[in-house]
Amino acid sequence: MSAPDSQKRDLQKIRIVLLLFIAALVASGITAFPLLHEMEWLASWRGVEAPTDLASLTGMDQWIVIIRDGLRDTYGRYPWLAYGTDWLAFAHLAIAVFFIGPVINPVRNVWAIWAGLIACAGIIPLALICGSVRGIPMGWRLIDCSFGVFGALPLAYCLRLAKRLELARADDR
């Protein structure tokens, strides 16, 4: 395979991975809008849709009911608090936009990949510290931490390919 073919394949790999990353950010953002509806559906799917005595539940079912009931109470009394999760959703969508640059030109826009990696690293202390302060169970915090880890993996791969592209382009000059 010639050098230009290798560069084209690397560019194609970066674009595919980043488009999947963008799709994941968009999906994550969109699903942050209807939280109460999603929790109602999840509780129904798990068979705990009726108001339930928390002591009779364990594990994930107990956590689902706690979240659902908390959202019900909060949205019922203070519906404007949901606006905060609307902004969370919007932030996911806005962050996704920044990865369009690296899809187009990953070498010139490598800064966005670095910013994404830094954000992924920041998820871990945020989830562990703020989750503890807010009383989030450790298992749930570890799930939140996994978003940072699993987000960093494709970005690190794209960074490696972008550096390889940069070196190949420098050699072509």
Architecture blueprint of SSEs:
Blueprint: H1 3-30, H2 35-46, H3 59-77, H4 82-98, H5 100-104, H6 110-133, H7 138-172
Structural commentary:
It is a single chain. With 173 residues, the chain is mostly helical. It has two domains: 1-30 and 99-173; 31-89, no CATH class. Helix content is 81%, strand content 0%. It contains seven helices and no strands.
Main sheet record: none
The number of domains is 2
Number of DSSP-assigned strands: 0
Helix fraction bin: over 70%
| Average pLDDT for all residues | 92
Radius of gyration, whole Å: 21 Å
The span between the termini is: 20 Å
Low-confidence stretches: none
Overall morphology:
elongated
Q: What sequence of helices (H) and strands (E) makes up the elements?
A: HHHHHHH
Quickly give the structural class.
mainly alpha
Estimated share of beta-strand residues: under 5%
Q: Count every helix, treating DSSP H or I runs of 4 or more residues as helices.
A: 7
Features:
173 residues, mainly alpha, 2 domains, 7 helices, elongated
Write a short abstract of this structure.
This protein has 173 residues and is an all-alpha fold.
